[in-house]
């Protein structure tokens, strides 16, 4: 838990924002604490390396300064435990290898120390997790001589031990407090913008104070989405997120729960940014090109009349209605209702609208996590529904053009959508922290990412 590898690792997954209604929740369990305990031993050993002033030996006629050094510290046990409603209790067992550079012969001693600290986890004013040591104690056991002849008097050795203990007692807790304060600076960097697209970003922050039980710590979080550097209001009709009960995620250290509301917010951003719009352009030089006035003219006589010479067609796909993502158990579907304008280039290279179509597309979405991002893959779900919205080429029989429009529309749409969904949305993260073997599950109204943790410096 110590240093940026410690509680920073434990709290790095906590998303960040500025309102009280949560969009998501992050829960870290006892397995996460155990992992932090394992990787926290080495940073703790380095942190406890403190100097000890010389001991003044007054047993002789003259004062004799005795130099004391600590060449090695071994943390044999580091244990973290949740404290309900408060934070984390820390207990560590450290063995201090101490060298007493006395005359005529140095002496090596082993001093066991038990460190106890209570760390409060709270919400900072800037919306980040904030940790602070509320109490700290160091308990010393009698030292044992490891090497060197024990030629010093027992009384002198007792005085030396008391001197070492007095020097270490306050310094050890100060070291821990200093590391925690340093950690708060590190945690403050978690409020950053993660890209969602070329012109959009997402920022997370804590919505409320942490919920801490004896088994886990949960943080409710809000997300703010930015378009062209400006925060965008969430959809007005988005339902409030009802936090689910803890799930059976055996083997997971962390669970990140993302609400339907958050997905609706992200889709609204994509719609307003225009990232879901696309142009599908025909090429006359292609042998299998179907997007031409000659192909369309075989189905619509007026098109053949207007364009006796073949011209390429352009399908201008623009999303008018808000995309609708539906989350059911083990099933995520996306409904798009774009307006497709069918255009042809005239002799002066200007575009001429032939007709427009109301289109309904249902897609199945598969979620995955890689590189600290939630990504998606879309596939067609059922047939594309098409109806004529307006026509400049007379009456159009849908039975005649349905197959053609579906053929030229589906593949480019899927390619475009998967390119966008493949970019992914950045999840709350910290430098050098990675999700280990993340698994994504879909539930009624929310998505859960269950994962281990891996810190790679």
Automatic annotation (TrEMBL):
One MF annotation (Gene Ontology) recorded for this entry: lipid binding
Keyword ATP-binding: no
Keyword terms, alphabetized: Signal
InterPro entries to which the protein is assigned, alphabetical: Bactericidal_perm-incr_a/b_dom, BPI_fold-BPI/LBP, Lipid-bd_serum_glycop_C, Lipid-bd_serum_glycop_N
SUPFAM superfamilies to which the protein is assigned, alphabetical: Bactericidal permeability-increasing protein, BPI
Stretch forming the signal peptide: 1-19
DNA damage recorded as keyword: no
Lipid-binding serum glycoprotein C-terminal domain ranges (all copies): 248-451
Pfam families: LBP_BPI_CETP (PF01273), LBP_BPI_CETP_C (PF02886)
Family per similarity comment: Belongs to the BPI/LBP/Plunc superfamily. BPI/LBP family.
Entry protein name: BPI fold-containing family B member 2
């Amino acid at each position: 838990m110590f240093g940026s590898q410690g509680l920073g690792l434990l709290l790095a997954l906590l998303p960040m924002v500025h309102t009280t209604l949560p969009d998501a929740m992050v829960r870290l369990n006892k397995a996460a604490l155990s992992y932090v305990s394992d990787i926290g031993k080495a940073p703790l050993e380095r942190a406890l390396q403190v100097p000890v002033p010389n001991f003044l030996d007054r047993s002789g006629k003259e004062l004799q300064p005795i130099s004391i050094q600590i060449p090695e510290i071994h943390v044999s046990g580091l244990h973290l435990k949740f404290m309900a409603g408060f934070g984390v209790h820390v207990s560590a067992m450290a063995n201090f290898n101490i060298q007493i550079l006395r005359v005529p012969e140095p002496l090596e001693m082993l001093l066991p120390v038990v460190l106890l600290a209570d760390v409060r986890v709270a919400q900072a004013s800037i919306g980040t997790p904030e940790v602070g040591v509320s109490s700290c104690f160091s308990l010393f056991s009698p030292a044992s001589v490891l090497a060197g002849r024990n030629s010093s008097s027992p009384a002198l050795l007792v005085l030396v031990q008391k001197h070492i203990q007095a020097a270490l007692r306050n310094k050890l807790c100060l070291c821990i407090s200093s590391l925690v304060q340093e950690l708060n600076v590190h945690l403050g960097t978690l409020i950053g913008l993660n890209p969602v697209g070329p012109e959009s970003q997402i920022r997370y922050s804590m919505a409320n104070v942490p919920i801490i039980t004896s088994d886990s710590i949960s943080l409710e979080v809000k997300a703010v989405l930015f378009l062209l550097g400006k925060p965008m209001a969430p959809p007005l009709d988005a339902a409030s997120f009802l936090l689910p009960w803890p799930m059976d995620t055996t083997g997971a250290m962390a669970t990140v729960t993302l609400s339907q509301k958050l997905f609706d917010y992200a889709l609204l951003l994509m719609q307003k940014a225009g990232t879901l719009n696309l142009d599908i352009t025909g090429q006359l030089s292609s042998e299998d090109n179907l997007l031409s006035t000659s192909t369309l003219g075989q189905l619509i006589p007026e098109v053949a009349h207007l364009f006796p010479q073949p011209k390429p067609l352009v399908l201008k796909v623009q999303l008018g209605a808000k995309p609708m993502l539906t989350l059911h158990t083990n099933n995520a579907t996306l409904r798009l209702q774009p307006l497709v304008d069918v255009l042809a280039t005239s002799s002066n290279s200007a575009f001429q609208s032939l007709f427009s179509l109301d289109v309904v597309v249902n897609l199945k979405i598969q979620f995955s996590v890689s590189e600290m991002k939630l990504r998606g893959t879309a596939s067609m779900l059922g047939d594309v529904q098409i109806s004529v919205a307006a026509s400049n080429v007379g009456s159009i029989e849908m039975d005649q053009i349905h197959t053609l429009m579906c053929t030229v529309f589906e593949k480019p749409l899927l390619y475009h959508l998967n390119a966008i969904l493949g970019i992914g949305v950045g999840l709350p993260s910290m430098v050098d922290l990675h999700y280990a073997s993340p698994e994504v599950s879909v539930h009624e109204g929310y998505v859960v990412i269950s994962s281990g943790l891996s810190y790679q410096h």
